[in-house]
Amino acid sequence: MITDPPYDSMVEYRDSADWFHVWLKRSQAEADPLFALTTNPEGGSEYDRELIVKAAWRKMPGDSRNPTDYDVGMADALAEARRCLKPDGIVTILFGHDSPEVWDRMVKILGNASLVLTSVWPVHTERGSQMGKGNMEATLTLTCRPAPVERPIGQFRQVEEKIRSALQRKVLEWQTEGMSTSDIRVAAYAPALAFAGRYQSVHRLSGEAVETSAWLDLARRIATEQATQHVEEEFDNRTRMILDWLSEGYGRSPQTTGERRRKAFAHNLNDNSLGDLLPATGAKCHLPFASELNLTARPDCMIDSVLAVAAAARDQERTLDCLEAAGVDTEEHRLFALCRILSKHLPETDPDVAIWRWLDRERRSLVPMLNTRRRQSEAASRQTALLSS
Q1: Which of 1, 7, 200, 286 could disulfide-pair with 254, CB 3.0 to 4.6 Å?
Q2: pLDDT on residue 133
Q3: Percent of the chain, pLDDT > 90?
Q4: Which neighbouring-strand residues pair with 92?
């Protein structure tokens, strides 16, 4: 059995259909009176049985398009599919969403329908018209089977190792097929959940049961490590985290603090240490312009260094101070490579991008000036030492 259900809050079908409905009921009502019939007080199409999550559901009390009703409706539909299956039957679900919270709920939906996820196949179906907003370009084909009556109890460490081994192979395969890094992170959820679903429950050494959210965090972390190995040796964790953030297409736009927490976890960072880089206002956080931050250049953190350089706003002495503090000593230093990478992730009109491109162009003159200044400083220090002795 194959189904392509609504993807939670990804598409608001009824609202999209109303664009056509309002014209059809005016132009075709005489030919087909059904076009003019609706219980919607606003005159649009009916939505009381629509199985989606309305993006603004919190502001619409009484509207049935909310997570609770969606979960119940999906579980009922999939339970009926499960009832109609032969003992060795399969339910294939096309699904795609980039929110870990939605995947957490999807696992509970499958459990309530007595189904378990067994495998996943990403299919490139979207055209990327929302590029730059972190949207997925792939749909996941989820293979589900009836949940076995008796499943073993698993130990966290053993299950974690199996998931890590499987995901490392999968990520390499997906990269070879040309999947984007952001899609790989989402696609990684399904194999992790499939492995965890082989067990009735999984427990830590303390006896505590492992929640679904832990598997989602683990999958994202493994996928991030594997997909970004090419920058693993070049940059520090804090810098890799921002590159990860920008590779999602977030740019300067506000994202949830929960997303910042997940990124921090994936890169072995403390979420509280990111407040100076991705400051939060309420439940949202964003990457500000360099001029709005108060960061200091240092050799162990390249993202802070390039932002400090951008804040120097092409002032030569301040720029040289930042480059020296960052430990720049050659024209091929990784700071310049980071400037080029960041410039590809942000718009050409971004003021920081303009400075990073200027810095990359001028590095052949700036680095010799910096080294000359160092030699002069060292000579002055030696002269002072001789005079004082």
Answers
A1: 286
A2: 40
A3: 42
A4: 2, 143
Q: Are strands 138-146 and 201-203 parallel, antiparallel or unpaired?
A: unpaired
Using DSSP, how many helices (H) and how many strands (E) does the chain show?
A: 13, 9
H-run or E-run covering 2 = strand 2-3
Question: DSSP assignment, residue 330?
Answer: S
User: For the whole prediction, is pTM greater than 0.85?
Assistant: no
From residue 386, give the alpha-carbon distance in Å to each of 372, 374, 389: 21, 18, 5
Which strand (E) or helix (H) includes residue 256?
strand 255-256
Tokens of 302: 């390249």
Output the pLDDT for position 319: 94
Q: Among the listed ranges 68-82, 112-126, 328-342, 367-381, which one has the minimum average pLDDT value?
A: 112-126
Closest C-alpha to 195, from 212, 171, 178, 176: 212
The sheet with strand 255-256 has its strands ordered as 255-256, 284-285, 280-281
Task: Give the 3-state secondary structure of 107-161.
Answer: HHHHHHCCEEEEEEEEEECCCCCCCCCCCCCEEEEEEEEECCCCCCEEEHHHHHH
pLDDT of residue 236: 92
Contact 73, 134 (CB under 8 A): no
* Mean pLDDT, rounded, of the chain: 85
CB 145 within 8 A of CB 98: no
**Helix (H, G, I), strand (E, B), or coil: what is residue 301?**
strand
- Measure Cα distances from 332 to 338, 363, 364, 375 in Å: 11, 9, 10, 20
pLDDT at residue 136, rounded to an integer: 59
Partners of residue 154 on adjacent β-strands: 202
